[in-house]
Structure formats: structure tokens, C-alpha cells
Amino acid sequence: MTAPWDPAAPGVLRLPSGRLVRGRGLRAGPPDGPAPTYALYLLGRPPAAPPWEFRWLRWPDFRLPSDRAGAYRLLREAWRRTATDRVELACRGGRGRTGTALACLAVLDGVPPAAAVAFVRRHYHPRAVETPWQARYVRRFDAGR
């Protein structure tokens, strides 16, 4: 098992189960501290390959994932790996797509879908999940398997 994220580090979200996941914006550059061991990048185009294991989910800015079933699988895998890995979710700015994905992980971790956006805004960033359709995606996430 990999050493977990520092719960006090910027962008680290503690899920109700105690699992830790880091959200961030790629535009800001790499943060200080340890690197992730697994990452899910939520971008319109493939990212440059980092030196750690990662997956890319095609997700244009201010929109929703292009492949909903694939998104569910990748988000579920990211959530599963938070038990043993330092998992990072990231988009360009770190709020809309990243916040939406973090809210989906919160749903997988037991937060009711109707409360997941508020949970992420309270514990990650107050402006996470930027659009009404992103919030609706979270509310319908678990039902959309």
C-alpha cells in the first residue's frame, strides 16, 4: 500500500469512508509534495503522459464526459484505487470537471447523490461543479450505471 495523501495538503478531499483523493488544476503546474500513483485526467484532449499510471477521460471544458458508461467505469476504478493508492483527479482549472468527478466519487463512497455537490463544495472548493448540467450529472450518477 502506498503512503496516503497528507489530509491537510491543498486539494485533498477526505471522503466519508476516510479515503483520500486529490483534486487539482493542471494549469497551476505540479504541486509540492508526493506525486500520485494513479491519476484520472478529465480533458478534451489527451494529456502529456506523466511518469505515473494514469487514464484519460475525454471531457470537454464546461461539459460532460463524452462516454458516460466509460466515465462511470473510470470513476469507479479511481474510487476503488483510493483504498491503496494516491489518486489524483484533475482538469485544466481544477473546479468544474474535477469537482464533478470528486462529487461522483463521493456518491460511490456513500454520499447521497442530492448532497454530493454540497459535500464537495464544503470540503474541496466552494465553486466546484460549475454548471447546472454538471450538478444534474452528479444527481443522476449512481442511477446511470
From TrEMBL:
Return the Gene3D superfamilies for the record. Protein tyrosine phosphatase superfamily
Keywords of the record: Hydrolase
Establish whether keyword Hydrolase is in the entry. yes
Q: Name one Pfam family in it.
A: PTP-SAK
Is NADP found in the keyword set? Answer: no
Task: Report the residue ranges that make up the Swiss Army Knife protein DSP-PTPase phosphatase domain in this protein.
Answer: 86-117
Name of the protein this chain belongs to: Protein-tyrosine phosphatase family protein
